[in-house]
Amino acid sequence: MSLRLRLTALFTIAAAIVVVVGGILYLHKLSGGLRDATDASLRSRAVPLRLTATQLTETTQPAAPPSSSDVGGLLTAVFRPDGVAVQESPALQGTGLLHPEDQAKLRAGKSVLADRTENDVTYRILVEPVSRPNGLWIVLVAAPTEEEDEATDSLGHSLIVAGSLVVLLSAAGAWVLGSAALRAVDRMRGSVEAITAADMTARVKVPPGRDELAALGSTFNALLDRLAFAHARQRRFVADAGHELRGPLAVLRMELELADRPSRRRDELALAVRAAADEVDRLARLADDLLFLARSDDGDLQVRRESVLLEPLLLQATSTRSRSAAEQGVTLEVVSPPGLRIDVDPDRLRHALDNLVANALRVAPSGGCVQIIAEQADGQTTITVADTGPGFSEEFLPHAFERFSRPDQARSDDSGGSGLGLAIVQAVAEAHGGTATAHNRDGGGAEVVITLPSVAGAEPRPRTAAARKVVPVEPG
Questions:
Q1: Against a cut of 0.85, is the pTM above it?
Q2: Percentage of the chain surpassing pLDDT 70?
Q3: Among 104, 256, 430, 471, which residue is least crowded by beta carbons within 10 Å?
C-alpha cells in the first residue's frame, strides 16, 4: 500500500471516528435537553393541579379536567385518597400510568418522575403527592414522547447522511492534499534516481519554504555531497595507489629483465637480486599500509589496550632509527617523565611513532635534532615528534593527513615516502579516541602532535619533571 493511500485511509478513519463520536454526543446532549424541557413543563403544570387537589372533596365526582389542562399537549389527572380519578384527561383513561409501587414514595412525600409505556405509547410522567387531613391526594401530569422521539430519530438520520458526506469529502481532501504534498517527494526521488556514478554532480531541487520537505531536500543534497566526496576520494586513492605500485613494479621488472641477459656477471646478478628484493620490500610495506588504512575505514582496526610505561616505548621507536640518524648526523632525543603510563595498544602506537620518526629523519638536516616529547595533563597525554627541518609548506598543512599527500609531491620513496605515514598516524590516534595535528614550530621545523586519553586514575605530570635522554647509536 502506497504512502498516499495509507495517509488517506488513516485520515478517513480519523474523520469517521470524529463524526460518529460527535454525532452520538450531540444526539445525547439534544435528547437530554429535550427531556429537561419536558420535565420543566411537567413540574410547571403540576403546580396548579396541586392547588386544585386542595380544593376538591371526597364527594367530588369523576369528571374530565377543564380543557385548559391539556394545553401544550400535557395530560393531567387528580386522584382521591381511595384511588378514584376525579379529574382525568380522556387520553389517560384506562392507561394505568400510576403503578402500585409508586404509593410508597408518595406516602414518604416524594414525587415520581419516570418513563411509562402504555398501549404502545411512551409517556413522561410526574406524580406528586398532596397531603390533606382526609388522606393522600395524588396529582399526575403526563406528556407523550412521540414527537420528541421522532425529532431525535429524524436528526439522527440527518446526521448519518451528513456525516457520510463529511467522511467522503475528508477522504477526497486527504487524497488531494497527500498527492500535493508527496509530489515534491516524487520529484526528489526522480532526481536521485537520475544520479549515477558516472555523473554525481546533479542535486535535488529543494522546494521553496522552510518546511519538512525543504529540510528533506537539503538533507538529500548534503548526503549526495558526502557521497560525491567519498567517491572522488576513493577514485583518487585508487589512482594514487596504482601510481605508487607502478613505480616499484617497473623497477622490479627492469631488474629481472636485466638479470635475464646472458652477459650479466655473477656480482651484477647479485646486485639485481638485492635491488629486486628492496622493491619487493617496498611493495610489501605499501600493501601493509593500504590494508591498515582500509581496515581503519571499515572500522575493523582492532585496538588491544593495556597500561604501559610510555618512556620505554618512545625509546624503542627511536633506537631502531639511531644508526640512520647517526649516518645523517642527526641527534635523537626523548623527553618524557619516567613514570608516565598510558592505556594504549603498544603495537599500534609504535607503528605511528615509527612513521613520524622516519618522516622527521627524512627532512632533518645534518647537525639537526629530532625530539619525541611526552606530557600528561588534564586527563590527556600528548606525544610530540619535532624536527629542525624546513617545516611544512602552508599549502601542505591543510592536506597533511590525506593519503598519498607529500610536502614536495615527489613520487619517490627516497624523497617523499609513500605519503601514507601521516594518514596512518591519524588512524591510530582516532582508533584510541584521540586526535593528530601538524603545524610548524616558531623557531623553525615542524612537529606532529598525537593527543590521547590518559590512563584512568593517572596523576597529571608537568613537563618540567620530564627526563631528557639522547638515544645512543645502535651497535652493529
A1: no
A2: 78
A3: 104
